């Protein structure tokens, strides 16, 4: 199979399973983030891919070739991968262009080709004008751009990024996400990006692998993860959401004060037993009047809390029957002072069943 394949990958440290039965297929040219809270096993997974630590179970393959033990562990320098760390790790005694050229010179490429490739990659990371500076004369963001340029210029089979933006201040982090995305769009190097920042993962990635307790919870595009989370963990780790508990009848889910047919939700479901669903604050609408559309759920109630966040209002709405509370995100023009009676409108296709 082409690309990077993790098969039932596991790593145990004493009694701790840092990574457990992790299956993942990263396609050639794809950018995948490993996203999850501290201690979920992201870095351990990345270090196994790089070859810095051996797995205790499972295997790692690149373009059909097994890299990991037990069939013989390929050492890190023979895996054709580049890694970028939190600390920029560029050589202080070399200029920007010397740093970037280093890997190409090591591979004994002709001088003209080195010059052309260094020039092109410095342009991509917008560092051409600083090519003759030394690292001490650069800002943190500029140093990280050099580290990126140096990693991609050798055209590695896989680019591994370990929280590369975590030493930068908030504004720069935000800007650098887009730089990383732009660079990936240009070079299309198969990339694995470790982060605990969902915004970073969403901007940069084709797909995000959400990890929890050493396991893969869900892998999907940023849009699919946000709109169709499969578990409570994913629904709450990626953005904010409302959880509702219901009971599955024969063909309807009964919530406190209202019911929704299985068919309206649009997912395969069987009757009997409790169910939890997620409804995003953005997936609902507050209205001063009841809406006529028969497919929309209309819940009467009132606004209990309101905060203006600039791009949206953040309302807490309480339904009259059942007393359910919902966080609702509304556009700035939709003004509902606290205490106002209102209708909450829910499109049933936005109700997502999840596992707890
Ligand atoms: P962070 O975001 O904080 O870097 P992470 O998701 O990258 O966290 P890992 O560093 O992969 O998590 O750690 C996963 C688990 O394995 C943690 O419980 C950690 O304590 C444990 N662990 C990692 N390396 C070792 C080690 N060398 N010896 C013992 N336990 C380890």
UniProtKB/TrEMBL annotation:
UniProt superkingdom: Bacteria
Pfam families named among the record's database cross-references: ABC_tran, TOBE_2
MF GO annotations: ATP binding
Keyword ATP-binding annotated: yes
InterPro entries: AAA+_ATPase, ABC_SmlMolc_Importer, ABC_transporter-like_ATP-bd, ABC_transporter-like_CS, Mo/tungstate-bd_C_term_dom, P-loop_NTPase, Transp-assoc_OB_typ2
Domain ABC transporter residues, every copy: 4-238
SMART domains associated with the record: AAA (SM00382)
Keyword line: ATP-binding, Nucleotide-binding, Transport
Homology family: Belongs to the ABC transporter superfamily.
Protein name: ABC transporter ATP-binding protein
Native organism: Neorhizobium phenanthreniclasticum
């Amino acid at each position: 199979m082409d690309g990077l394949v993790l098969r039932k990958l596991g790593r145990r440290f004493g009694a701790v399973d840092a990574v457990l039965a992790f299956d993942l297929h990263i396609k050639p040219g794809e950018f995948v983030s490993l996203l999850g809270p501290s201690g979920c096993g992201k870095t351990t997974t990345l270090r196994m891919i790089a070859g810095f630590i051996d797995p205790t179970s499972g295997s790692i393959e690149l373009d059909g070739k097994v890299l990991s033990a037990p069939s013989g562990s390929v050492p890190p320098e023979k895996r054709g991968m580049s890694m970028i760390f939190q600390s920029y790790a560029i050589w202080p005694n070399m200029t920007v262009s010397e740093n970037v050229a280093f890997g190409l010179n090591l591979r004994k490429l002709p001088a003209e080709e080195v010059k052309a490739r260094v020039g092109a990659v410095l342009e991509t990371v917008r560092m051409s004008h600083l090519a003759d500076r030394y690292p001490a004369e650069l800002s943190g963001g500029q140093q990280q751009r050099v580290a990126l340029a140096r990693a991609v210029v050798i055209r590695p089979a896989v680019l591994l990024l370990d929280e590369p933006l975590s030493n930068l201040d908030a504004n720069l982090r935000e800007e650098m996400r887009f730089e990383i995305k732009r660079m990936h769009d240009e070079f299309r190097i198969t990339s694995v990006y470790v982060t605990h920042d969902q915004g970073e993962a969403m901007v940069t990635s084709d797909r995000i692998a959400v990890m929890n307790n050493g396991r893969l919870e869900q892998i999907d595009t940023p849009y699919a993860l946000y709109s169709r989370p499969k578990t409570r963990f994913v629904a709450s780790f990626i953005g904010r959401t409302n959880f509702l508990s219901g009971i599955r009848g024969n063909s309807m889910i009964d919530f406190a004060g209202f019911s929704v047919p299985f068919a309206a939700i649009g997912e395969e479901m069987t009757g009997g037993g409790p169910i939890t669903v997620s409804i995003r604050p953005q997936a609902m609408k507050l209205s001063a009047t009841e809406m006529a559309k028969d497919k929309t759920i209309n819940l009467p109630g009132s606004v209990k809390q309101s905060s203006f966040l600039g791009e949206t209002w953040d309302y807490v709405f309480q339904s009259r029957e059942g007393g359910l509370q919902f966080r609702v995100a509304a556009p700035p023009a939709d003004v509902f002072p606290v205490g106002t009676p209102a209708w909450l409108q829910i499109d049933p296709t936005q109700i997502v069943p999840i596992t707890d």
